[in-house]
Every structure is written in structure tokens, then in C-alpha cells.
Amino acid sequence: MSNDRNFFTLLLYAFGFFLLWEWLRPLEKLTDTGGVQYFVIFIAMSLLISFIRIPWWIGMMVKAGYILFALHELFYKNKQVTVSWVRDFGSELKENMGLVLTAQWYELSDLFRSLLFFVLLWLMTYLLRYWLVVRNRIFIFYMMTVIYVTVLDTFTEYSGQKAIIRVVAIGFALLGLLFFRRMLEREQIGGSNRLLRKWSVPLAIMIAASLFIGFASPKAGPVWPDPVPFLQSKADYIRQGGYATIGYGEDDSKLGGPFLGDSRVVFTVKTPARQYWKIENKDIYTGKGWEIGEGLGIREFQSGEEFSFDMITRPEDPVREAVFDIKTAYP
User: Fold this and answer.
1) Confidence of residue 243 (pLDDT cuts 50, 70, 90)
2) Under a CB-based contact definition with an 8 Å cutoff, are residues 178 and 137 in contact?
């Protein structure tokens, strides 16, 4: 029974390792982080230490020793480990701790950032062990991974098409195995190794069939418009003073310079014939943009206010009706 449990736990740790690995894959492409393999090895080593259950103080010494080795390979590869290196390393840690206490986050050195990242991975492996072995639940971390990959795929240059397939396969396998383990513990059933093989076959078939159907089936178009152009245009509008975005805006006092597309729809009109709608008039050009003069006779009205105006028509002209659907509200 002990061997069965050890094999089952090792299987959970293996899937957990691959799921946590997906958090590290985008780093090299989206950041200037190098040596990602050292972080991956640290995750595998931490989970292996948890699996073999060595005394906690020995595991802590092994992890700390590996972190020092990895930092040396990343930042002091051409410098031998001597007393002077230890002194320099300690002084850099002391200096960065002072920066942390004064909240000067952007001044932290790359070595100290890497050290903090190792500590974060240390905590993540501990939480992963707690979720897998103690709680027998992984749904929250699995959903966090899915959201992480999809957000990066949507808002960055990282392509998550293959990553989301791997995450779905690993997540479904973990969810199925943990459900099986909870059922065995609840019913107090022995011979889990034999039952695991019987359970794994239909689970693997179901996961493979789900991925194949999802990959091969036709994809429907998006229900909602892509929010990325709107969010990017808003961010660039704020960052560049409000004059670098193509699209309708009330402030035309500063024009020119680099511009970005804005595909938002302001309003739609249903009419019996094709018509041209002018939204606003401005009559003074300042050399940088357009402004409204006092003599233009502009009449303003608020959104939702009844507004009537006289149209110059001939008696024989038919009366036509236009129905507006306001998509983007302006004052």
C-alpha cells in the first residue's frame, strides 16, 4: 500500500511540476530574464525534496545552497567562490534591503530580484505540495494558471495556443487523479495501484478526446469586440497627452505626431436612405489644432435631453426619420 501511495504521490508531483513550469515559460520572451533553466531545476528539486520527505532543516540547507550556486552561475560565473565574493554578495544584499525598506523598487539589482524570485518559487512549491498532498485539491491554482496564460496571450506578444493545450491536459489529469484519491480515502479502498491503472485509461481517453474535439471543431467568432485596441488606445491617450489616437474625440486642440488606431463605434443610425452625418464644427485653427469660436453659433445639449431644430426643406420633400443607437456616450 505504501508503494502504491508513493507512486500516486510522485505522479501528482510530476503533473504539478509541469503546471508550475507553464508560469516560467513566458519569462524569456516577455522579460530580460536569463537562465530560466536554473529556476526550473529549483522547482523540480524542491518538489523532489518534499516527495522523499527528508528533514526540513536538511531540505532548507540544500535549497539555500542551490540558490547561492545558481546566483553565482548567473552573475559571478567568471569569479571564483572566495571570501571576497561572499563579502561582495553580503554587501549587495545589505544595500538592496535598504532599498526595499525605502520602497525604491526600481533600483533593486538583478541579483536581488533573482533572489526574491527564488524565494517566491520556494513558497509556490510549498503551496503546491499543500494543495496536492494535504488538501487533495488543485482547482484554484489550475484556474489561476489558465487566466495567467490567456491574459498573456491576449495582451502581450506571447502566443499561448500550445500552452493552453498543455495546461488543459495537465489540469484535467490532476483534477481526475485528485478526485480518485479523495474517493479512495473516503471509501478506505485498498489496492490503489491496480485501481489507478483502471482509472487512468478512461481518464486519458477522455482528455485526449476532449482536446482533439476542441482542436478540430470549427471555432465560432468572438461574441464581444476585442477589448485590446480600446484599452491600448486609452492607455496611449493618457500617456501621450490625448492627441495620438485616431477616432472621434472632443479635444482637437493638439493634432499631429504619431497616432494609433481606435476602432470604437460612436453611434449607428437607421435611415431609409444613405446620409452623411456631421458630428461637430470647429472654425479656428491655432496652428496646432482646431477650436470652436464664439461666433459659430454652436448649440449644446446634454445626453438624454430633448433637442429640436429647424430644417430647411422644400414642401415636396418627404419627412424622413432617423433612429440613433448611441454606442459611446459623450457629455
Assistant:
1) very low
2) yes
CB 241 within 8 A of CB 258: no
CA distances from 50 to 1, 46, 116 (A): 20, 6, 21
Ramachandran class of 53: left when φ > 0, alpha when ψ lies in -120 to 50, beta otherwise? left
**What pLDDT is recorded for position 325?**
84
State which amino acid sits at residue 130: Y
Q: What is the pLDDT of residue 192?
A: 62
Q: Are 129 and 47 in contact (CB under 8 A)?
A: yes
- Give the model confidence (pLDDT) of 70-103 as tens digits: 988 888 776 676 677 778 888 888 889 988 888 8
Total Cβ atoms within 10 A of residue 246: 11
Q: Which residues contact 247 (CB under 8 A, 6 or more apart)?
A: 233, 261, 262, 263, 264
